[in-house]
Specification:
There is one protein chain. The protein is mainly α and about 130 residues long. Helices cover about 55% and strands about 0% of the residues.
Length: about 130
Amino acid sequence: MAKSSEISEFQYEYSRISTSTPVKHRKRRSIKGLIANLMICAMSLAAAGLMIKGLFVRIELAEQSDKITAAKQELRRIEEENRRLRIEYETKIDLDEIEDYAKNILGMQRAGESRTEKIDTDTQDKAILIERIS
């Protein structure tokens, strides 16, 4: 048998157990770990910000695309109207009407053969070019 001062393997020694409340020990974070966590948070926020900015850019792109489409439709409408007005303008020009207006309203006369004369000269006409000296 074992001595009474020795504790057998089946007995417990209660004198070593503290009766005070156990203190929870906080794990101390290292500075490197804290910096790493802060960097991860900052990068996450930056990525979220870029995603939101990308959404706003896509919305603006869609709005500009709608404006371009509307402007192209307006341009087609105006070009069609321009074509129609040109055709209308060209059909309104009638040379007989212009001649009638010139004769009756403005008092103009058509130039006839009797009003034009040909002048025959024996010598050929010559032109002399003088150079300009600057």
